[in-house]
Amino acid sequence: MPAGDFRYAPPPPAESDSEEGRIWSQIKTGARRDADSEPALASYLYSTILSHSSLERSLSFHLGNKLCSSTVLFSLLYDLFLDSFSSDPALRSAPVADLRAAKLRDPACLSYSHCLLNYKGFLACQAHRVAHKLWTQSRRPLALALQSRISDVFGVDIHPAARIGKGILFDHATGIVIGETAVIGNNVSMLHHVTLGGTGKVGGDRHPKIGDGVLIGAGATILGNVKIGEGAKIGAGSVVLIDVPPRTTAVGNPARRVGGRVGSGKHEEVPGESMDQTQTPMEVVLIKWMTAITVAHSGDHPWADYLELAAK
């Protein structure tokens, strides 16, 4: 598709003192540097970044090219994305927060331009926000069609009714599934193959509520209308069926809270921002206890009662 603007008057220059202006300036600087060092990408970088006057125009162009098909035309998607980003300050600020999150939390993120162009989790999240806006405007057939294209292209399946905050990092992103009534707070990080699902075919409010600053490890599954408290950490591969208090680690299948009622396993950092997926020595001991409980769940194990009490 040719680069350039379509039917909207150019906005004021983005190079201002605003955070968006600073990040957009860095994106263009990175794109120029990459075009100089890799001439094979010069045309691509010009069409996706350097020919545009603002982040929302560049993002709209890139998403339109990614998600268009022979029957869903680029021009329709470009206009849809640009109108949504331009008319909604919250939609316009969210990509900036997400870009910062990727750059700060992912050591593999080379630059803002690298994230904008290549991080499918970032792109899927921005496209979902537009689908969610369509859903709230009762334009549900178009919202669902956009959800389908996001799933086809990026391998990320988010129901358009799901509500997602900003400062979000979908790291790797492949296989992420987020259900209709799920809510995700700000500054949340989740890795690939995370499922925020229901527990059956019953309707209503049936999906997880994720607080601010939560970290969800790869392959974790959280089912039902459960609350994951602010700053909690969900271990990789865990299956969570219960509420998790704030700043608490939950691990295992089924997941158990590490630290118990007295909060000895609580942490002070914000895992969704620190990306610390390790366990403290006490957490390691408690995880071993919980493993023993799983083996001894029938009550035949001589330490079963003690281990069950210790984990509470």
From TrEMBL:
Residue span, Serine acetyltransferase N-terminal domain: 23-127
One Gene Ontology term from the biological process aspect of the record: cysteine biosynthetic process from serine
This protein's pathway: Amino-acid biosynthesis; L-cysteine biosynthesis; L-cysteine from L-serine: step 1/2
Alphabetically ordered keywords of this record: Acyltransferase, Amino-acid biosynthesis, Transferase
Annotated InterPro entries: Hexapep, Hexapep_transf_CS, LbH_SAT, Ser_AcTrfase_N, Ser_AcTrfase_N_sf, Ser_O-AcTrfase, Serine_acetyltransferase, Trimer_LpxA-like_sf
Record SUPFAM superfamilies: Trimeric LpxA-like enzymes
EC identifiers of the protein: 2.3.1.30
Family label: Belongs to the transferase hexapeptide repeat family.
Protein name per the record: serine O-acetyltransferase
